[in-house]
Structures are given as structure tokens and as C-alpha cells.
Amino acid sequence: MPKWKRWKKTDVQTLQQLVNEGESWEVIAAELGRSVEAVQQKARRLGVDVVVHTPPTPPVTTTTTAKFDSKELIPVQKALEILAAALKAAGEPGLDSIEIQRLNVVATLARTYENLFARFMQYREIEKQVVELEANYARLAKEKS
Question: What are phi and psi of 136, to 5 degrees?
């Protein structure tokens, strides 16, 4: 890399675009083919704020790293069994209004739990993929520098 090279209008636009996208100093510098220091100085002169994303300390607990007692989670099958029992009981003749309300609450909670559990599992998978992508990105950035 040359000691010094002139900033073109397109370089400044790229710098501002990457800043707006929230890219780190290292990514911006690599994209522009300049040192991190040169990019930082130019950003300062332009009055551009770069938000550098650094991993928090201590690490954030995510659904994939959260420690919880699996006994606290009801398997979806159990939630569906509770829902089925509530629906069956609701069909019984002679129920008073309080029992009907109770069964309605049970059924609503079982459906809600099943939906939230399914979303929780989807989020865990997405987080797992994001963690893998971040690790790959960090490895590639390290290899590139």
C-alpha cells in the first residue's frame, strides 16, 4: 500500500456509505484500500462518526447460550395435550361460566405457549447461524489483514 494517496470524491462517498451501514474501521479501511489510521483521520476531518461494533464484555447471553432448567420448559407435545384436554372438557354439558372461562384461559395459554416455543426454536437457529457468520467474518478479516 502506498504511503499516501489522494482521496477521490468516490472514496469519500464510499466512506460515508460504509459508515451509514455501520461498518467497522477495519472493514472500511479494507474496502478503500487504506490504513485504519488514514480512514479515521479522514472521517474526523469530515466530521463523520463511525460506530465501532465491539463484542460486549461480559458476553451477552443469547438463547443459544442461556442456561435454563429444561424442566421449566413444557414440551410442545405436552402443551398440545393440555389444549386437547381443555377442548374436550369444554364440550362437556352443564359447565358453569367460571369453568368455561378457566378452560378458555388454559386453551389460550397452551396455544400461546406452542407458538412462542416454535418461535424460540427458530430464533435459536437464527442466532446459531449469526454466531457462525460472525466467527467466519472475524476469521476472514484476520486473514485479510
Answer: -65, -40
In the structure grid, which three cell numbers stand for residue 140, read together?
476472514
Enumerate helices (H) and strands (E) in the chain, giving the number of each: 5, 0
Cα 126 to Cα 133: distance, rounded to the nearest angstrom: 10
**Per-residue pLDDT tens digits for 7-61:** 898 988 888 888 888 888 888 888 888 888 888 888 888 877 655 555 555 555 5
pLDDT band at 64 (very low <50, low <70, confident <90, very high): low
Q: At what angle do helices 9-20 and 36-46 cross, to 10 degrees?
A: 90
Determine the distance from the C-alpha atom of residue 103 to the mean position of all C-alpha atoms in its chain, rounded to a whole number: 36
In angstroms, what CA-CA distances link 7 with 11, 13, 37? 6, 10, 14
